[in-house]
Amino acid sequence: MLTLASKLKRDDGVKGPRASNPASDSTRRVSVRDKLLVKEVAELEANLPCTCKVNFPDPNKLHYFQLTVIPDEGYYQGGKFQFEIEVPDAYNMVPPKVKCLTRIWHPNITETGEICLR
């Protein structure tokens, strides 16, 4: 499992110790969520099965994307199911919000597409 602490330690080893730079303080800081998502999106795209496709409407916003699943076996074979995934700012402590955009009967998906995993 990826952790931010291990990623930062590895990055510090490559870049050297962090120095205080007044110019960098005035620029926008990258959030923890975005740092994690850069690595996790790369892993997602490398390990995604051929029955799934990821679409980023805005490539600069890794925290919002759509997933299309086309099962090739099982009860839902031949279907095409679209999901909307939004990763909150508190990601890693708060799970992503997933909504099914395709109308489907499933015990964990409401009629409006909210997904309940509890």
UniProtKB/TrEMBL annotation:
Q: Which pathway does it operate in?
A: Protein modification; protein neddylation
UniProt-listed SUPFAM superfamilies: UBC-like
Q: What class of enzyme is it?
A: transferase
Q: Where is the UBC core domain?
A: 32-118
Which GO BP terms, alphabetically?
Answer: protein neddylation
Q: Which PROSITE patterns match?
A: UBC_2
Instruction: Name any one Pfam family assigned in the record.
Output: UQ_con
Region (Disordered) residue ranges read 1-30
Enzyme Commission number, as recorded? 2.3.2.34
What keywords appear on the UniProt entry?
A: ATP-binding, Nucleotide-binding, Transferase, Ubl conjugation pathway
Q: Which GO terms describe its molecular function?
A: ATP binding; NEDD8 conjugating enzyme activity
Q: Which reaction does it catalyse?
A: [E1 NEDD8-activating enzyme]-S-[NEDD8 protein]-yl-L-cysteine + [E2 NEDD8-conjugating enzyme]-L-cysteine = [E1 NEDD8-activating enzyme]-L-cysteine + [E2 NEDD8-conjugating enzyme]-S-[NEDD8-protein]-yl-L-cysteine
Q: What is this protein called?
A: E2 NEDD8-conjugating enzyme
Name its species. Answer: Crocodylus porosus (Saltwater crocodile)
